Amino acid sequence: MSVLIAPSILAADFSRLADEIERVEQAGADWIHCDIMDGHFVDNISFGPAIVDLVHKHTSLPLDVHLMIEHADHYVPRFVEAGATSITVHVEPEAKHDVGKTLDQIRGAGCRVGLTLNPETSFELVEPFLDKIDMLLVMTVHPGFGGQPFRNDQMEKVRRAAQWKKSGAQKIDIEVDGGIDPETARVSIDNGANVLVAGTSIFHAPNYTEAIRALRGDSVGD
Ligand code: DX5
Ligand code: ZN
Questions:
Q1: How far apart are the C-alpha atoms of 162 and 152, rounded to whole Å?
Q2: pTM for this one?
Q3: Per the domain annotation, does 221 fall within a domain?
Q4: Is 171 helix (H, G, I), strand (E, B) or coil?
Q5: Ligand 2 mean position to 35 CA, how many Å?
Q6: Whole-number Å distance between alpha carbons of 222 and 213
Q7: Are 134 and 173 in contact (CB under 8 A)?
Q8: What does the alpha-carbon distance between residue 108 and residue 110 come to, in Å, rounded to a whole number?
Q9: b/e string for 120-149 if b means 16 or more Cβ within 10 A?
Q10: Most exposed: 56, 97, 127, 138, by fewest CB within 10 Å?
C-alpha cells in the first residue's frame, strides 16, 4: 500500500501560512494535518476553525484535523463547516466526551472518522471502536508540542492495529504522528503504518519536495 504524507502545519511559518500550504502541496503532500489544541486536554494552545477554514481556501488537499481538545463533540460541527475531510478525536477519558457518540457524529457529518491514543494509553481502550473508524492514529510523542523525539515503544500498537486490519474486512488507515523523520518513517512503515504526519522534518527542511520524498523512502532522482 502506498504511503501518504500529511505535513503538520504546526511547524509552518504562520506569518505566511497560505504560501507554506501551497508549497507543501506542490512538494507532493497528500493531506494537510491540522493540530487543534485547547490548553486543557494538552498543555498548549494552537488554532481553531477559522485557521482551518483559511487552509481550506488555499488547498485542494484533504484536511486531516486532529482534535487534542476536551468536549470534541461540541466543536465537530465547526470543523466540518471549516472544511475538514477527516476528524480524529482522542479516546482518553480526559478528553471528556462519549467516544462512540462522537465517532457517529463525525460519520453523520460526512467526514472520515479517526480515533487516536496517547503513548501512555493502552491499546485496549481503542479496540472496542475499531470497527467504527476509518483511521487509527498512534501518537508517537505525547501530544502538545512539535519537535519531540519519536517513541519507538509505540510500534507495538501499530503492529496490533496492522494485525487487526489484516484479519478483518475493514481497511483502516494507520497513521503515526510525532517525531517522524526519514528514519522513524521507515520504522513506522515497516511496522504497518501507511499515513505519516510530519511537522519539523518537512517545514524546517530547506527543500520540501526532498523532505517529502525522503519520508516516503524515495531517493532523489527516483
Ligand atoms: C503533536 C502533534 C503533532 C506534531 C508533529 O502534539 O499532534 O502533529 O505537530 O510534529 P513533529 O513532526 O515536529 O514531531
Ligand atoms: Zn497531530
A1: 16
A2: 0.97
A3: no
A4: coil
A5: 5
A6: 9
A7: yes
A8: 5
A9: ebebebbeeebeebbbbbbbbbebbbbeee
A10: 127
The pLDDT tens digits along the chain (222 residues) read: 699 999 999 999 999 999 999 999 999 999 999 999 999 999 999 999 999 999 999 999 999 999 999 999 999 999 999 999 999 999 999 999 999 999 999 999 999 999 999 999 999 999 999 999 999 999 999 999 999 999 999 999 999 999 999 998 788 999 999 999 999 999 999 999 999 999 999 999 999 999 999 999 985 544
Let me know if 181 is a catalytic residue: no
Inside any domain, residue 162: yes
Q: Is 140 in the pocket of ligand 1 (CB under 6 A)?
A: no
Residue 120 in domain? yes
The reply to whether 208 falls in a domain is yes
* Residue with CA nearest ligand 1 atom 1: 143
Residue 91 sits in which domain range?
4-216
Give the whole-angstrom CA distance, residue 169 versus residue 165.
7
Cell of 171: 481497511
* Tally of structural domains, the chain: 1
Question: Ligand 1 within 6 A of 114 CB?
Answer: no
CA-to-CA distance for 166 and 189, rounded, in angstroms?
15
Q: What is the CATH number of the domain that holds 83?
A: 3.20.20.70
| Cell numbers linked to 64 | 486531516
